[in-house]
Design goal:
The chain folds into two domains: 24-174 and 387-400; 180-384, Rossmann fold (3-Layer(aba) Sandwich), CATH 3.40.50. The protein is 38% helix and 17% strand. The protein has 15 helices and 14 strands. The protein has helices spanning 36-52, 63-69, 116-124, 142-146, 180-189, 191-202, 224-233, 248-254, 281-290, 300-307, 325-335, 341-354, 362-366, 369-384, 389-400, and strands spanning 24-29, 55-60, 79-82, 85-89, 105-109, 130-134, 149-152, 159-163, 212-216, 238-243, 265-268, 271-276, 293-297, 312-315. The structure holds 2'-deoxy-thymidine-beta-L-rhamnose (TRH). 2'-deoxy-thymidine-beta-L-rhamnose binds at residues 32-37, 39, 69, 136, 217, 243, 278-281, 284, 297-302, 317.
Amino acid sequence: MSNPPLPPVPAPVPPTSATAPTIACDIFCAVIDNFGDVGVCWRLARQLAAEHRWQVRLIVDDLHTFARLEPALDTELARQTLAGVTIEHWREPLHAGVALQVADIVIEAFACELPPAYIAAMARRTPPPIWFNLEYLSAEDWVADVHLKPSPHPRHALTKTFFFPGLGPGTGGVIKEQGLDAARSTFSASAPARQAWWERATLGPPPSPDATVISLFAYENPAIDALLAQWRDGDEPIVLLVPQGRISGAVARFFGLPAFAAPTHAERGNLRAHALPFVPQTAFDELLWVSHLNFVRGEDSFVRAQWARRPFVWHIYPQADAAHLPKLDAALGHYAAPLAERARTAMDRFWHAWNGAGTPDWADFWSHRRAFETRAATWGDELATVGDLASNLARFAKSQLK
Ligand code: TRH
């Protein structure tokens, strides 16, 4: 049987020569670990190129990690163009962008420290570039106070502006492409598109309508065993979708398998689990859209889960000295605030249990499913009022260009 055509996914299109970009932007990205650093930068680069018509160059130190998100990338090339973005392999310590061409806008992602030679070239440029440090996302209140604050360079006549993503007013917002809501609606309204997704991802038909579909993208997590057991022993059928990654080993152990890699399926009691391949970033949203509940992590998948307008559980990136816990609470402060007390407490407990404090209580959490679904939709509307990160950044940058 041939698959019906899929709806468009929100991959921005490159600019055409008729609308030649006029603003040049360099984004520097150092991959610390996992996929979030390059995941955020790649999304931002594509959006600035496609929707703002900027001439974007993305300079990344780890092309192998990048290629997991964008399989069209050739890891052997020093320079290539994809989706209207020039991609350069950042080879430290000497490489600093071909011929030290300094763009109008320079984005240093996540304090990755620009090469000194590039900074010197920035200082020689007239006028100097608009220089941003793009920070990690945090929902904490102080973010709005420091967003867009300038910091003069200690030696050069350059100013770095701190750009803080956030979930509330006065912050930089989070990334959202113009076509994202339309793509989600089209996909969700199309039974053939969803059917094709299930056949492609699980090599089988969609689950029965009474099943609760859950996606699981997480770091290693000691709470997983209790949760898998509760799903197995629960009253409702659960279909679990597990993209290959750091939690796959624990799922394999639960089912007594040597590994849990696509296309493995496993079943115990009321739990049926599918191992999924890691897909290109442009296909990741569909996993969130076919699921009733999404477990997400880090930064970029956390944001995509919010735009999916479905209930989700966040596995926050763990930091030393539990520095991540205030960030978890700050996010809950925004997201869970309008819920009735019992639902809010259940969400709070479950998110904390998933982040190391206590044992998750699935029955209690999911008894508030309808309230969570309603909140997921109203939260999407609220978050949209902050404006999308790329547009917020572009507007500020243009206001600074002389
Ligand atoms: O991978 P992450 O944990 O990334 C990060 C980094 O660890 C970073 O150092 C840290 O500071 C930051 O989190 C907070 O989680 P994240 O941000 O959700 O990135 C995952 C990316 O992987 C996201 O862009 C979605 C993408 N993805 C795919 O493209 N295909 C897939 O199949 C899956 C499961 C994910």
